[in-house]
Specification:
The structure is a homodimer of 389-residue chains. By secondary structure, the first copy, chain A, is an alpha/beta fold. Helices cover 45% and strands 12% of the residues of chain A. In chain A, strands 1-6-5-2-3-4 form a six-stranded mixed β-sheet, sandwiched between helices. The first copy, chain A, has a five-stranded mixed β-sheet with strand order 7-11-10-8-9. In chain A, helix 11 links the parallel strand 5 and strand 6. In chain A, helix 17 crosses helix 18. Chain A is globular. At the A-B interface, helix 4, helix 7, helix 8 and helix 10 of A face helix 4, helix 7, helix 8 and helix 10 of B.
Chain lengths: 389, 389
């Protein structure tokens, strides 16, 4: 990253609080404790996570300590109401396995030697009822209800388990327990990070500075990359997968991906963007595979992609088609005008004349379309599948 | 009490839930565990508490077990926000002293041998953070926010400490801990008692039945007797005090007091009410002193009252006067037309010609008027002091 850590952080951050305070600490050469939270129910990282991880790496290189908090306390308890799908009970074995998966990925970016790891059960499981009362006494209910998902559910009358009020307190108390100087996260974590400041104040600690970062768009162009939305590109995926998926993102996202996760000097990004949309995207794909799997794998993935996909001359512009039923291959071919009947469609695929993203497909091997899939019949006929608005 | 315990309870209760269930358990001869909560910050009982205590005594006599829960857990922690005047931190010594005061009074009505006593710190102080999360998971925030004081504060934007959400859960969990079959309380406790049912269900216990009882009006006629409002008649007060204070209640409350706390057959109440307002009230006063101090003290208090007060022929009807400054004796006398000047008022009181409720008063011994005080000058001139609307 060009320039100081501070400038790099500021260039990417969606919001920093309190910037002048944070900058002066960095300028004075203070070594900060930088908190970052990990959700042990979702150990699979994707490219969106690199936005923050790259900043953490820069901070490490500048001598700061990254403190990763594994939210194991809640994961081990689970959601006592049983209502929440997002908070399943995990066994200690699963928490440990997930943490292993997570750290295998995160250490592709971070330096383990300068990373401190804690499970928040270290301090939360020994807290007693009086401690919980003390903790909750540090804020008003009205402050907690400002959190967007609570406010929304109150407005719409959808139930909020009373215990859910505890979750922001628990994660905020983590900042107290590790004496965090700075906490970073996605911009969807803004409330939680600010709440950490509030609770630290309640325990007479200097409130942490905070920095939140933009959420990277998914490869379908939708607002947020996430595994559950199926629009993610996983950090642990194979080189060819990463390369091919990046090549499928909408052109207008190439610059955004380059700037947020390319980890390139901005002058280099500017240069790549002059190459035109397809080549800029290919440079991004090459760069990302190189970051995650090394240069050799990146070059191999590029060659493989060119051979398999470009050779078939998929046009840069093709028509979109929205299938009536995304799990119906032959029906979709008929709808899109790629076959005159289901019978013909079936024959074409049996003869090896139908491809999705360059891979041959038959009714037997097909399960369902994903957004942005390129459906091809023969050498010249293509449509791009669109599933969402 | 006439008839069965069930009929007595039903005659006084403001609400019973679930009545048919409770009645059938009683009819089957089941011995119930009847929960009643005590606030260790307010150990002074007054006549209003007898409404429920008499029901508890009847239940004891029918063989049920009264389980009194001293809310010492919260009292020992106090209010961590320091915002609440109503939840001071108490030392263990103060909690113990208050409990002693409380039980000295309560055992004027209840049989100690059939009363089980617990401090809720027995189960709450050892609860851990996971236990608190489990407990709070048994209800939604929306359910808790139905509690009137929360709803009101949300509406008016006055802060609710997040920890305050825990208090109803704690008291509801007390029902789980003691496996309560029935909980009784004042009608202002309706939410808490219903919430006990909810939380017992959450822990797979059969929900307690509940019965709430009317709040006895204060001796100034206002809606609720309470020490803080200064309109109470204490259970521990001296016979002459109790007698005199009951004689000062508004006539229209005589029947209500007789029926709610007289502990008399309803036919006897009917008979007393035929005597006319003054004699019915005198019978109530005699009855209440007898209940709390015995027959001999009651007769003595009545004789003393008659000698001191009736002998001076305080008229049954007299004018009301609202003092401009209730702590100004001579000014009030001038305002009320009982003296032509402060100088005359001062002379009259120095000569022993001024009485409040039959007691001689001078400027030196006077501190302030209370509502319903009878201010008398000489043998024939009276006004009744009114302080509130």
């Amino acid at each position: 990253m060009d320039g100081s850590v501070w400038e790099g952080l500021l260039a990417k951050a969606a919001q920093v609080q309190v910037p002048e305070h944070l900058k002066s600490r960095m300028d004075r050469g203070e070594k900060l404790r930088v908190k970052f939270g990990m959700d042990p129910t979702a150990p699979d990282l994707h490219l969106g996570h690199l936005v923050v991880l790259d900043v953490l790496r820069d901070l490490q290189e500048a001598g700061h300590t990254i403190v990763i908090i594994v939210g194991d306390h809640t994961a081990l308890i689970g959601d006592p109401s049983g209502r929440s799908q997002t908070r399943p009970v995990l066994t200690p074995q699963v928490v440990e396995a997930n943490a292993r998966t997570y750290f295998d990925q995160i250490y592709k970016v971070l330096d383990p030697a300068r990373t401190e790891v804690h499970g928040n059960s270290e301090w939360l499981s020994s807290m007693d009822a009086a401690g919980v009362l003390q903790l909750m006494g540090k804020a008003t209910l009205q402050q907690v209800l400002q959190r967007e998902d609570f406010a929304e559910r109150l407005r719409t009358g959808s139930p909020i388990g009373a215990h859910e009020i505890l979750y922001p307190f628990n994660q905020a108390y983590d900042s107290v327990a590790v004496r965090a100087d700075l906490e970073v996260g996605g911009s969807d974590q803004l409330f939680n990070l600010l709440f950490g400041r509030e609770i630290q104040r309640g325990y007479s600690q200097e409130p942490q500075d905070i920095a939140v970062f933009p959420l990277l768009e998914g490869r379908d162009g939708s607002i947020k990359m996430s595994k559950s939305a199926g629009n993610h590109i996983g950090i642990a995926e194979a080189p060819a997968e990463i390369y091919g998926k990046i090549m499928s993102i909408p052109d207008h996202l190439t610059e955004r991906y380059l700037r947020l996760i390319g980890r390139l000097p901005s002058s280099e990004v500017d240069r790549l963007l002059t190459l035109g949309p397809r080549d800029a995207k290919a440079a991004l794909a090459l760069r990302m595979v190189a970051r995650l799997h090394g240069e050799d794998e990146a070059v191999a993935a590029e060659e493989d992609f060119r051979r398999r996909f470009r050779a078939r001359e998929a046009p840069q512009e093709m028509e979109d088609h929205r299938p009536a039923q995304p799990d119906d291959l032959t029906g979709t071919m008929v709808e899109a005008g790629l076959a005159s009947s289901r019978g013909e469609a079936r024959r074409l695929s049996q003869q090896g004349g139908v491809r999705i993203n360059g891979e041959k497909v038959t009714e037997a091997s097909f399960s369902s379309f994903e957004n942005s899939d390129v459906l091809q019949v023969g050498k010249r006929r293509f449509v791009r599948i669109r599933l969402s608005e």
